[in-house]
Specification:
Helix content is 30%, strand content 34%. It is an alpha+beta fold.
Length: 305
């Protein structure tokens, strides 16, 4: 049996992944990597494939896709971890739209460089997160972050657009300013404090970036055992344009409307209104009342610099 299971999503990146597949396979062959290829065929398929790969004893699961495909694979591996002593090392070849998980782990966007990294296989243990509540029947694992409020709605809008990459999220953000500007009253129960504010957005970050270019937590580390939160109070609609520009630069912490804190466990409760929530781009709920987010230190071993 090969050491590598290659899970490939041909529809990632609105067709970019399909065009890149021959090149990815050729590069992996050049490096002498023997792999078993599986193409994803439906939503959630990568979860099943990654879980099965762990149970079959593969040493590595390599995911070629975007953040959604990576999230599915993360869930399959973390579910397998619940009953297996060892699970495969995760590798990523980013051929999706946002590729925020890869950004947070310094995995190169270049297909050539990403395949070279997979072949060299430097690796380290990185944290994972788990969110429960909302519309989820069970928990959902994630590697990058959870967005509550404005950034969740941006993701919902971007998913319906034909644009790709950062442009899709930027246009979606500008559209969202005009449809989501009344903030719910949110209670955040953290490790050491409770904060109750009308929150435009709450980003709970393991990685550093969301939406392909919004640096929600520029100083976050994926192996420090704690989440970095970016909390933005409700502001006048016109000020939202300036905040978006600051977040794209990662300089929002100097804005009086922004609060940054750290916590290992976060309970987000809507005291008034409701919570739109996503985790790594996966919809948790569009109008939920409460979620619980917890860190899992050293959750997975990942190929990364």
């Amino acid at each position: 049996m090969p050491l590598y299971k290659l899970i490939y999503n041909p529809v990632a990146g609105k067709g970019v992944a399909q065009k890149a597949q021959p090149k990815v396979e050729a590069l992996l062959h050049e490096y002498g990597l023997e792999y078993d290829l599986a193409l994803t065929e439906y939503p959630g398929h990568a979860t099943d494939l990654a879980r099965s790969a762990a149970e079959a004893g593969f040493a590595y699961v390599i995911v070629a896709g975007g953040d959604g495909t990576v999230n599915e694979a993360v869930n399959g591996l973390m579910e397998a971890r619940e009953h297996l002593a060892h699970v495969p090392v995760l590798g990523v070849i980013p051929v999706g739209r946002g590729n925020d998980f890869s950004f947070g782990l310094d995995i190169p966007y270049s297909i050539e460089e990403a395949c070279a990294l997979v072949a060299a296989a430097p690796r380290r243990w990185v944290d994972m997160g788990k969110v429960t509540g909302g519309d989820l029947k069970g928990g959902l694992y994630f590697g990058n972050g959870v967005g509550v409020g404005f950034d969740a709605v941006v993701g919902f809008v971007a998913a319906k657009m034909k644009l790709t990459g950062m442009l899709a999220y930027l246009v979606a953000a500008l559209k969202t300013i005009f449809i989501y500007y009344k903030s719910p009253l949110v209670k955040l129960t953290l490790d050491t404090q409770t904060i109750t504010i009308p929150a435009l957005l709450v980003s709970i970050m393991n990685g550093r970036r969301m939406g392909g270019g919004f640096l929600m937590a520029p100083d976050s580390h994926v192996d420090d055992g704690i989440f970095n939160l970016c909390i933005v109070r409700e502001v006048p609609r016109m000020k939202m344009f300036g905040l978006i520009a600051k977040i794209m630069k990662g300089t929002q912490s100097t804005d009086p409307a922004v609060q940054t804190v750290q916590s290992k466990k976060i309970i987000v409760t809507a005291e008034k209104g409701s919570l739109p929530v996503h985790a790594d781009g996966v919809t948790v709920c569009e109008s939920g009342q409460e979620i619980v987010v917890e860190i899992i230190p050293g959750g997975l071993e990942v190929i990364t610099k």
